[in-house]
């Protein structure tokens, strides 16, 4: 099939490199440096420099393609996805945007599109797991802990961002929605810090983030749900101190006669400090726990930077979950029309097993335990 990948950043690059093994792939990005990095792999991926914010141009750009992957920054994710659907294309999306993708369901049906959203590692793989077991057990609670971390801890942040710093900061300041005793509650991001121990990593801190997303509505019968982000201990306090000092404010201030938003300044400052450099090793750690009345099912993941391909762990775990979903569509395993978060696909055991096996073939190994 002919597939367009919108966005050639760290994750978009991994997606294109995986899909080009079996499909004709074209990558679009405004950044020539991103395209040059992709070109260095010397594959058959076609490279196109394009301003992806020009959504009115999408019908022309995308007319020749059978399927589209959207891997753009979160702030432009919803508009990008909407434009792809209006172009009448099947699409798999990994853009972590604040809007509710389910609101595009009617548009997708109108345009005869299969749309799989939030198809990364979390949200994404966690949703597949929850959907898989939802019909088999009476789930009383769900917890998801996930983090992408550098192998070498460099002060003060001890963190490197596989995504745009703007998206990470939004994760840190966007209020977190949780489910408690059957009621959706909203709490500050980075609140309710707890420490957990993970084999091969050690002690990490976890704090609330707004990662449940579609699960709050598609799995509304589950009374307790939470998603927390993992970082090395001390990171949350440092970020909270910056927020309290106004570094994430979007209210412009005048500096030397120039109007500047503190958030824009902070994001620009953190780009270099949080950037993963070529060859810099990092890891992804994740734990999804489903507690029922009579049993508990737990999935864990510990994945590392791939020294052979030079792909980061977060790019692999996120990108390959996305490409697994792409292949669900291309192989005819999933062809329903409308907008589908992964939990609505994972309930099909054949689809779930395909995703698990697809990841395993690429060295992303999930470990399941039953208690």
From TrEMBL:
Residues 120-364 form the Saccharopine dehydrogenase-like C-terminal domain. Keywords: Oxidoreductase. It holds the Pfam family Sacchrp_dh_C. InterPro entries: AASS (IPR051168), NAD(P)-bd_dom_sf (IPR036291), Sacchrp_dh-like_C (IPR032095), Sacchrp_dh_NADP-bd (IPR005097). It comes from the Bacteria. Residues 3-116 form the Saccharopine dehydrogenase NADP binding domain. PANTHER family: ALPHA-AMINOADIPIC SEMIALDEHYDE SYNTHASE, MITOCHONDRIAL, SACCHAROPINE DEHYDROGENASE. This is Saccharopine dehydrogenase NADP-binding domain-containing protein. It comes from Terrimonas ginsenosidimutans.
């Amino acid at each position: 099939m002919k597939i367009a990948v919108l966005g050639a950043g760290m994750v978009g690059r991994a997606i294109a490199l995986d899909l080009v093994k079996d499909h004709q792939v074209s990558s679009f990005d405004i950044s020539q440096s991103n395209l040059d990095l992709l070109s260095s792999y010397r594959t058959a991926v076609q490279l196109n420099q394009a301003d992806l914010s020009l959504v009115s141009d999408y019908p022309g750009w995308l007319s020749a393609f059978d399927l589209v992957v959207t891997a753009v920054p979160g702030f432009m994710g919803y508009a990008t996805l909407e434009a792809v659907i209006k172009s009448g294309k099947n699409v798999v999306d990994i853009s972590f945007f604040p809007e509710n993708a389910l609101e595009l369901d009617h548009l997708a049906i109108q345009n005869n599109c299969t749309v799989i959203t939030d198809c990364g590692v979390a949200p994404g793989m966690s949703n597949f797991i929850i959907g898989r077991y939802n019909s088999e057990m009476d789930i009383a609670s769900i917890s998801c802990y996930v983090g992408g971390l550098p192998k070498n801890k460099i002060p003060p942040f001890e963190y490197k961002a596989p995504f745009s710093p703007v998206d990470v900061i939004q994760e840190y300041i966007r209020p977190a929605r949780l489910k408690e005793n059957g009621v959706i509650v909203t709490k500050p991001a980075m609140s309710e810090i707890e420490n957990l121990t993970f084999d091969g990593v050690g002690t990490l801190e976890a704090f609330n983030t707004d990662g449940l997303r579609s699960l709050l509505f598609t799995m509304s019968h589950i009374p307790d749900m939470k998603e927390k982000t993992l970082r090395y201990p001390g990171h949350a306090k440092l970020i909270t101190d910056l927020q309290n000092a106004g570094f994430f404010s979007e209210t412009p201030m005048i500096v030397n006669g120039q109007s500047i938003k503190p958030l824009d300044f902070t994001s620009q400052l953190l780009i270099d400090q949080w950037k993963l450099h070529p060859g810099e090793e990092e890891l992804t750690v994740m734990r999804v726990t489903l507690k029922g009345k009579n049993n508990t099912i737990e999935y864990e993941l510990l994945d590392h930077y791939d020294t052979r391909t030079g792909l980061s762990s977060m790019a692999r775990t996120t990108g390959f979950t996305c490409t697994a979903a792409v292949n669900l569509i291309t192989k005819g395993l999933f062809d329903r029309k409308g907008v589908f978060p992964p939990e609505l696909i994972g309930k099909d055991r054949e689809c779930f097993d395909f995703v698990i096996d697809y990841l395993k073939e690429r060295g992303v190994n999930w470990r399941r335990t039953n208690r």
